C-alpha cells in the first residue's frame, strides 16, 4: 500500500523533496517545480513540509496577542489591489487623533496584548515627525507595549521627507520606541509585476534597501509575499530567493507570512483581469514550498487566518506552517477588499483551534520568545475579551437562556453490520 503511494510521486518531485528533507538548499528551479505540484506530488509536498516543520521548530503552534491600528486610510499611491485607501475629501476618510490611538492601545492592553501593529495609508501631508510622534505618544503611556509599525512604503515616504541618511532615520525611530517593522508592501518583488500592481509604489531595489538597512541597525522585520493575482510560480520563486539571501546576510526576519490576494472589491480583479485569489491547492502549496525553500534560514512560517479562514489555516498548519499569527482585534485592510473571515480571533479561540489539530498552543512575543505554553487546557487563563453576546435564532421559546438543559450524551456502539 505505502509502496503504491510512493510510486505515484514523480521521480523529479521525489528527488527535490528528498533534498529538502536532507537539509540541502533548494534552487529557485526546484521551487518552481514544487509550486506546480498536483495530485500525489502535492500530497507528498505537504507531508514533506510538515515533516520539515517538525524538525525545524517542533509541534508547538504559536500566536501573538496584538491589536491592529490603522492610523489613517488617506492615501494617494493607488495600488490596484487595495480596497482600504480613501482620498482626503471622501466621507469614509479618517485620521486618528492621539486620543483615539491611546484609547485603542488601552483596549489592547486590557485584552492582554503585548503588541500593537501600526500601519496606515500614505498621506502626502504627513512627514517623518508625524510617524515619530505616533511612537512617542504611545510609548509615553504604554512603555511596555511592543510597537510593530510602518511598512517599507511608509518608511520610504517619511525617509524622503526627513532628508536624513536612511540608517540614521531608522535609528531615530527605534530611539523613539519602534520595536520591529512589518515586511509588507513587498507584494511580489519583481518590478514588472509591481508596475502593474502599484506603479507608484517603491520598487524592488528600494524595498530591499530599506529592509537590509533596518536589519543592519537592529530593527527586525517580518517578510511577506502576496500571491493569487497575476504572478507566476517563477515570480514567487525569485521572491523567496531574495528573502532567503537577505536572511542569510542579516538574520533580521522574524518570520515569513504568505498573504493570499483578496479580490472581491478591488480594481486588480474587477477591471484588470487578475485571478480571483488563490485556490486551496495554491494556498497549501505556498506554505509548504516556503517551509522547504526557506529552511534553515527562516523557520517561522505564519498562516494568515484573515486571508485563509480558520479551517484552511489549520490545514496549512499541518502542511509546513507553525504560527497562527495575531489576534488582531481590529482589521480593515483585508475586510475592505472583501475578506469575510472576521477581525478578531481571541487567544482562547486560537488555543482551541490549535488543540483541535493535536498540537500545543504557545503565546509568543513579536520576536518569537515563548511567553506562555498552554499544555493543559484545564489551566488556561480566563478570557480577557469583553462579554460576547450570542444571538440565538429559531422559535422564541427556545431562546430562553434560563431553560438550559443538561443532555446525556449517547454511548456509541458498533452494531456489527
Ligand atoms: S496598499 Fe497601502 S500604499 Fe497602496 S493604496 Fe493601499 S494604503 Fe495606499
Give the structure's gist in a few sentences:
By secondary structure, the protein is α/β, with parallel strands linked by helices.
How would you characterize this protein structure?
The protein has 417 residues and is α/β, with parallel strands linked by helices. It has two domains: 9-54; 58-373, TIM Barrel, CATH 3.20.20. It contains 17 helices and ten strands. It has helices spanning 2-7, 11-21, 28-35, 39-57, 98-110, 128-141, 152-162, 166-175, 191-197, 204-216, 233-250, 267-270, 280-294, 305-308, 310-316, 333-337, 347-356, and strands at residues 60-64, 66-70, 115-119, 146-149, 178-181, 220-227, 253-260, 323-326, 360-364, 370-373. The mean pLDDT is 95. The chain binds iron/sulfur cluster. The site of iron/sulfur cluster has 11 residues, from loops. Residues 75, 77-79, 82, 84-85, 121-122, 153, 198 line the site of iron/sulfur cluster.
Proper CATH architecture of the largest domain: Alpha-Beta Barrel
Q: How many domains would you count in the coordinates?
A: 2
Number of strands: 10
CATH fold group of the largest domain: TIM Barrel
CATH top-level class of the largest domain:
Alpha Beta
SS-derived structural category: alpha/beta
Biggest β-sheet description: 6 strands, parallel
Task: State the order of secondary-structure elements, H for helix, E for strand.
Answer: HHHHEEHEHEHHEHHEHEHHHHEHHEE
End-to-end Cα distance: 26 Å
| Strand line-up across the major sheet | 2-3-4-5-6-7
What's the Cα radius of gyration?
23 Å
Mean pLDDT: 95
* Helix proportion range: 40-55%
The percent range for strand residues is: 5-15%
In this entry the ligands are: iron/sulfur cluster
